Amino acid sequence: MVEQIELHFLGSGDAFGSGGRFQTCLYVHGLGDGFLIDCGASSLIALKRNRIDPSKIHWILLSHLHGDHFGGLPFLILDGQFSRRTMPLVIAGPPGVAARVEAAMEIFFPGSSTVARRFPLEFVELAERAPTPVGPTNVTALAVCHPSGSPSYALRVQLGEKVISYSGDTEWTDNLVDLAADADVFVCEGYFFEKKIPYHLDYATLLKHRSKLDCRRLIMTHMSEDLLHRLDEAKIEAAKDGSIVAL
Fold it and tell me: How far apart are CA 134 and CA 103, in angstroms?
């Protein structure tokens, strides 16, 4: 029997916790150990609220290096140290990911980045359009329009015969068409309903380009209060914290 792959929205909120939602964190499981796509500052809380053992997370894929997408890592790494984690942790992200994570750890908890750990911590830098094996996945990063101090990516994650595509944060770019092609699910930012914000994608623009996105299922995430208050008008599915998608 083929094990079912599930995509679990642990956090579907924006940087400001709109709607009381956790910041971006997607948990994928079903082929061996589970992994995360992005790890916003509230992610350790979200993991524990959903009774997912953080020490069993072996791989983390990062779209870009803003706090609501990678800021949970200092807490998750320290939790591993205090809980006597032994499983290796591999963090894959844009160029400079190791330095940014270590800098964040030093800002929050001085000295924490150099403390001896019982578990190996490895960083992998993703290069644009270069498929990279990370654990059970093959990850392809596509450049998007969202300044973050390093390249910002959308991620196309191949897991067995299934494909999960994820936009990260971005304004519209035609790279999203390549990203979504034949994906089983495309998780895409929908920040405002129709208001145009630089470097972010609104629902109206996403709907305008919907016919170009050749994915089996499109789900909006990273929604502001503006969009959350108008979801009854939306013609595109919206994520919510705790929702699970079977692939």
Answer: 23
